[in-house]
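tool=predict chain=A
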Amino acid sequence: MTSSASMPSITFGITTFNRPRLLRRLIESIRTRYPHVRILVADNGSQHATLPDDVQVLHLPFDCGLSRARNALIDALETEFLLVLEDDFQFTDETDIEPLWRVLRSDPEIGVAGGAIRGCDGRVTCYALDIEVCRTTMRVREAPHRIAVTPCGIPYRLCDMVWNFALFRREMLREHRWVDALKIGEHCPFFYEVKLARRWRVASCSLPKIYHVPDRRPTHYLKYRRRAADYFRAYLNARGVEHYERVLPYHYEDDATLLPPVIVLAVGHSGTSVVTRMLQKLGWNLGRPVDKVFAEHIEIRKLNRQVIDGGQLDTTAARQALGALPMPWALKDPRFVQTLQHWLPLLAELEIKPVLLRLRRELSATKGSYHRRGAPGDVDRRIENLAASRDHLYDLWPWKRLTLEYEKIAAAVSMFDLDRFEASQDRDPGEVEGPSFTPSPRAIAGDSRAPEFGLTAAEFIDLNVAALENDSSMLASLQLDSAGANALADARAAFQLDSSFGRPMDPQEEGPEPLSMQLDSSVGSPAAADAGFALDSGVDSPLERAIRRELRRIPPPTANESHDGSD
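tool=predict ok
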């Protein structure tokens, strides 16, 4: 999509405030690359640029704010998509909008796709963030590197928040407007409201890059800009959020490292399904088609069965199956303890170097699990042979490897149900399995007998590998025994994984709605719940009124502002 003739469905929308020189520079750069695209400018300043006749300008009341300016763009939008821009951007040869458009077209649930920013130092900033709220604390952190790929080969990441260089669907913007009361400091509030509604996905694609123009900000401009913290605090107060933290706010593109592919190596009945679902929650893809009960790739499992039956791997089919897996992938099949050596030459040929994750469980507990299910034959001898094969393959593995003990996972997850935890004190921890991994409402609500241990949403998702899609309000009172905290720390140290949370990245994966922070408006404040805040913060909504009440405490700018309309 190198010409505007191929983009009749996109409007370029620019918000501007008293920076006419930068605005002209941006529009000139757009016209160089896209001569005929529709450009719409929402100007709420007092100093106006002289622009070409084919640029439509919406002259708004002075200092009505960024949110109202963006909403004016929505009201004037006639195309299917809106590219949101700020006046201090500049198009370059790297600013190709097509990848953003392709990402939106690849998944109808993605409502916005954001690009990357190149600074004056030449570095590219990838702004793909997750927003996490637990109790009364909001944390903004870099989204995990869960890479998905469109059918035409464009990689992207799902996250909660992107730059203001982003392509929006008109349908999404009609459902989610900016809060007019937030003249500035509106960025995180907008995306958090989208997240709360759980209707649209947000994607980040670093292929399109726009240049951020360095510019000296005069005093008369800064006095309006510096209100951002006050306006953002007003929003947080209205939402009942007392604390705000930025953890890894963004990364530079050349600092980024992708998650490696993983092969789970374990004897059956050792918690492989649980661990694989944990990996999926943390951003690894299971591929398609997948057995949702056992978290196994069906084609890989079929190939392993053929190896066991015939002693040879179908390398053509295996190469095709591996090539179709979206990075980063995780493969789990207990049959790997018998077949992995057949896959090694193909992995080396394809230059794929997966991390081998060995999962170990006490042999007595594994044997007992098979016996309880009535497994035929000499189960004990068979389990011992499979465990020996697992360890031999692990020792021969030529690339990175790590070991995880099943008992540590079981100990941590059992904390979700206090009844089962108390019962487990008289049992071998290796016997904790099956239903013990399903959290009970009682355990999540907390218990006076257990010392309080606050669990973040990221840690919650690390452990919650089963259900709990519906009652998100239980997050607010989640507690964990200190022993569970230690077990969790041990498990996470063994995994050496990022604790960031989010929606699994496989765009073709089916299944229940993932727990990408399914918080409702009651989180953080009972008063907020009583007020009945609407998730879509339109004009005159309870949220809008609450923000306006908070804003009454903020003094207006005091310096004299020139309204002479000069350029």
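The first helix runs from residue 20 to 33. Residues 424-538, 560-567 have pLDDT under 50 and may be disordered.
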